[in-house]
Amino acid sequence: MSLRPSWQMFSPPETGSDRFCLCPQGVLSNISSITDLGGLDPVWLFMVVGGIMFILGFAGCIGALRENTFLLKFFSVFLGIIFFLELTTGILAFVFKDWIKDQLNLFINNNIRAYRDDIDLQNLIDFTQEYWDCCGAFGADDWNLNIYFNCTDGNPSREKCGVPFSCCTKDPAEDVINTQCGYDIRAKPDSEQKDYINVKGCVPQFEKWLQDNLTLVAGIFIGVALLQIFGICLAQNLVSDIEAVRASW
User: Fold this and answer.
1) Which of 109, 201, 211, 236 would bridge with 138, disulfide CB 3.0–4.6 Å?
2) Contact present, 119 and 23 (Cβ < 8 Å)
3) Where do transmembrane segments lie in this chain (predicted)?
4) Same domain for 105 and 56
5) Number of domains in the chain
6) pLDDT score of 30
7) C-alpha torsion 226→228→234→236, nearest 10
8) Residue-wise pLDDT tens digits, 218-232
């Protein structure tokens, strides 16, 4: 018996089409288009950040061990640049918070469209909706963007006018997750939907989470900033001590 790759069924994007096609299931294969980074794979971003952190740690460690003032100065200056970039980013995020909110809405909607295209992305969306008790970007109707869940008359999917199970309200008495709890739920009146699913969007819920945990979030950012300033001060102090010793020779 030959082993074959797993396949995933999805309906074509053309409205009214009753055809289905079989496509291989990838692992985050469409992440570049989902994140809308102009074709840049986010993996490269993590590699660049990791490379920068390695160079920074190498310069600080070797500079201190070998008493190399050039590496220590490079470490302190580079760390200072990172600190001011973080500070600038925080200020810009506060000033342009409406733009960031729109981008977050766009990001979630792009992910909704690709919900069934990637199993890892699907798990990420389900985790987000379960964690924040939300559904869609600003509401359950955002799932109309997905070819499986939209309410158009030509949609042949069994999930038509439904939502993923992660939108459903949790029942503590259920030991096994009912993955069909969201079927046909958006065909009901809005007053009845709230009895079965979370009607709040993930963007408002995320804003509420930030407000409720503002002290914790601010404390983390302040702690990271203080560590960076402390590292800069230690590096500069060590450079001064080394130069003072060398001057006395």
Assistant:
1) 201
2) no
3) 43-65, 77-96, 216-239
4) no
5) 2
6) 47
7) -120
8) 899 999 999 999 999
Instruction: Quote the pTM value.
Output: 0.66
> Rounded CA gap, 196 and 8, in Å?
28
Q: Give the per-residue pLDDT at 42.
A: 66
CB under 8 Å to 31, separation ≥6 — which residues? 41, 42, 118, 121
Residues 72, 105, single domain; the answer is: no
Give the C-alpha separation, 17 to 156, whole Å.
8
CA dist 143 → 4, 108, 151, 185 (Å): 32, 10, 9, 12
Tens-digit pLDDT profile for residues 56-95 = 999 999 999 998 999 999 999 999 999 999 999 889 988 9
Residues 126 and 207 in one domain: yes
Domain membership of residue 240 as a residue range: 40-95+215-249
Is residue 162 located within the same domain as residue 196? yes
Please tell me whether residues 234 and 183 are part of one structural domain: no
Q: Which residue has the tokens 């804003």?
A: 207
Residue 143 near residue 135 (C-beta atoms within 8 A): yes
